[in-house]
Amino acid sequence: MTEGAPDLVRICREARIVSETHDESAEDALPAVLTLPLDAWHREHGARMVEFAGYMMPVQYEGIIAEHLWTRENAGLFDVSHMGQLVVSVEGDDQSAVEAALEALLPADLSILKVGRIRYSLLLDEHGGILDDLMVTRWKNGFFVVVNGATKWDDIAHLRENLPDDITLTHRDEHGLLALQGPKAAKALSSLGLTPVLDGGEPVEELSFMQAGIYSWNGIELGVSRSGYSGEDGYEISVPYEGIVDFATALAAHEDVKPIGLGARDSLRLEAGLPLYGHDLSPETDPVSANLTFALSKRRREQGGFMGSDHVLQALADGPATLRIGLKLDGRQAAREGAEVYAGDVKVGTVCSGGFAPSLGHPIAMAYVDAAHTADGTALFIDVRGKKLPATVVSMPFHPTRYYRKGAPK
Amino acid sequence: MTRYFTKEHEWIDVDGNDATVGITDFAQNSLGDITFVELPESGRAVTAGEAVAVVESVKAASDVYAPVAGTITEGNTALDGEPELVNTAAETDGWLFKLTLADGADLSDLMDEAAYKAYIAEL
């Protein structure tokens, strides 16, 4: 059985179409696919471009494995400008109304989130289903929220519908987002000489994991977060469109930095055990089944009061029926999204993400599995094209994460 | 020996009744880093257009079809330990399988190299 495998004809056609120099007539034929400010820059740097979340995005440059390994050892520059950058605010310094309004929609405790600090959180529906995962940062004059590209329009509609009328939602759609990830990211970014804009602002290399600052560089203002989605130390940097080509060029000129495509971003985040919305998270999953209970802040568990909280707190009390877990496969054959997971002859789950792990040298997968079969070390099978591949439940991350926590022992 | 190509991006060397099949350099380049190849078992009878092998890259798995009808005689076991041979030597050492042509196997739909080059130039 080879059902589900895309054939070479399609892969070749896609690779061919998108590797050609961008041509305006092709754009006319595909009005739904948008280009971002670094489009030409990526092509000049040898990127193979594909359509993703409605945009043409670089999927790879020299090759996914080489780019993946480069990021683990040096620093990779990722264009994630398709993601949604939102500001939720009211006029003035008192943002308590915004804090309350966002807490009605997110399970995070924003009352203890200090200025310049970041939380991972989830946008939930009335049933506790996950509408999106996001990063929220508190600034003095509002909250900065970064959401996924493919879901941003739905998120904006959800927020507009559910935020009180006196709260302003701004889509920062003239800012791109770059991620600089890897053990040499701090050295490379600090070499550009970014100047802290805010009083008491620290140099970028002094930011701790999940801390952010505002900086100026070459006359443009950058929002710099020490965060990312590779499992490595690094930054996500919000850059105004007018300066993004210069900024990307300056970063890529550093000897430790190479541009990296979305293909390696996917393999890096998979090794780091980080879920990808639309694959590992969906409205059919909730924070408990998705194994994201760390995103349910203590006070919010006690008090509830967020959309879907009745369902989520019930699931927390009952324990999950199915759970997102990690699986390690023997051999080299990968199990991919949709593959069925078995305990003996009984189907107990489905793979949501999977592939070959370049830093580990074997395939790994994430799967939703019946809770009874999720203990570390449980031996399961994954059906891949009629073949039952042995797989073992392992804890995530698959590859150790290396975030920078100030003061923590190295 | 004559080399033919298919629209599905396989190449096939035909020498009398014996044939060797692989994917083209164009195809491996489109796939990217190959991490695993699933090969057909010897003795399996296949029809033209039947999916018989799978080439996996980091991002996807792709079917490879039998260009002609026949019986599989050998899979390239070198690919078990070194699937990246399909990237580095797609049209030589990175061959996938050999087969014996079935009686009356039809080669008329296959392209020669010039026709294949023209075909991929049009994609």
Number of strands of chain B: 9
Fraction of residues in β-strands of chain B: 35-45%
Total helices of chain A: the number is 11
Cα gyration radius of chain B (Å): 13 Å
Kindly state the percentage of residues in helix of chain A: 10-25%
Query: In whole angstroms, how far apart are the ends of chain A?
Result: 49 Å
Please give the order of strands in the largest beta sheet of chain B: 1-2-3-9-8-5
The assigned structural class of chain A equals: alpha+beta
Shape of chain A: globular
Mean model confidence by pLDDT of chain B: 95
CATH superfamily heading of the domain at 8-81 and 175-270 in chain A: Probable tRNA modification gtpase trme, domain 1
Number of separate strands of chain A? 20
How many domains make up the coordinates of chain B?
A: 1
Binned strand content of chain A = 25-35%
Q: Multimeric state of these chains? A: heterodimer
Structure notes:
Chain A is 24% helix and 31% strand. Chain A is α+β, with helices and mostly antiparallel strands. In chain A, the strands form four sheets. In chain A, strands 10-11-12-13-9-3-14 form a seven-stranded mixed β-sheet. Chain A has a six-stranded antiparallel barrel with strand order 15-18-17-16-19-20. The longest helix of chain A has 12 residues, at 8-19. Chain A is globular and about 60 Å long. Mean pLDDT of chain A is 93; it is low at 17-30. Chain B is built from four helices and nine strands, in the order E-E-E-H-E-E-E-E-E-H-H-E-H. In chain B, the strands form two sheets. Chain B has a six-stranded antiparallel β-sheet. Chain B has one domain (2-105): RNA polymerase II/Efflux pump adaptor protein, barrel-sandwich hybrid domain (OB fold (Dihydrolipoamide Acetyltransferase, E2P), Beta Barrel), CATH 2.40.50. Chain B has helices at 25-31, 78-81, 85-88, 113-122, and strands spanning 2-5, 10-15, 18-23, 34-38, 45-46, 51-57, 61-65, 70-75, 97-101. Chain B starts with a strand and ends with a helix. The model of chain B has no long low-confidence stretch (mean pLDDT 95). At the A-B interface, helix 1, helix 4 and helix 9 of A face helix 1, strand 4, strand 6 and strand 7 of B.
